[in-house]
Amino acid sequence: MVSETAQDHLQQVVHIARGFYARKDRAHDLEHALRVREWGIKLAMAEGADVTVVELAALLHDIGRSGAVEKTHAESSAGLAVNILRKAGYSEEIIIKVKKAIIAHSREAGYEPETLEAKILYDADKLDFVGAIGLGRLFTLGGVKGWPLIGENSCESFYQEKIRGYHEHLFTKSALTLFKPLFHYMEEFWQELHTETI
Ligand SMILES: [Fe+2]
Ligand SMILES: [Fe+2]
Q1: CB 77 within 8 A of CB 63
Q2: What separation in Å is there between the alpha carbon of 197 and the centre of ligand 2?
Q3: Ligand 1 center–CA 98 separation, angstroms
Q4: How does pLDDT run across 145-180, given as a tens digit for each residue?
Q5: What's the CATH code of the domain at 66?
Q6: What whole-number distance in Å separates Cα of residue 139 and Cα of residue 20?
């Protein structure tokens, strides 16, 4: 969708998303969604996926975080996204694809990403948790959760238990290529941190 109307619809979705993300922690704010959108566009173009579906799914994928009315934030975000997209005038075909992607972007809901667009959203979301931006988000989240830098239940343990394993679960080759140098930067950061704390 490149027409003026399509851009208007997209801007309407960004505007609505902004309101939802204003109530979220800064690691999962509109800026996160906008960066996931950019990663998503890049991956969708490289992998031949539906760019509109990926863009919409990225913009709305975390709107249901905190205060989730459903079991998980992915399910809650998917439900909210369906209502928003219907009101914005998107076709049911697009809405179903966006819903499938959002519901599977986090493993907590127990859904596997099955469509190419769902796989791309999953990968794009993980790419925003690596590199310098990933570190910034990690420490922002740590601040909200009250995590220390290192030790038990810390920023470092979250990194080791979750972020370090992401590359084993990425679905697309394009994401893995983009992931590697950003992951390497993070690994070096933790090595440096330990030389400073010893
Ligand atoms: Fe999420
Ligand atoms: Fe996310």
Answers
A1: yes
A2: 31
A3: 14
A4: 999 999 999 999 999 999 999 999 999 999 999 999
A5: 1.10.3210.10
A6: 22
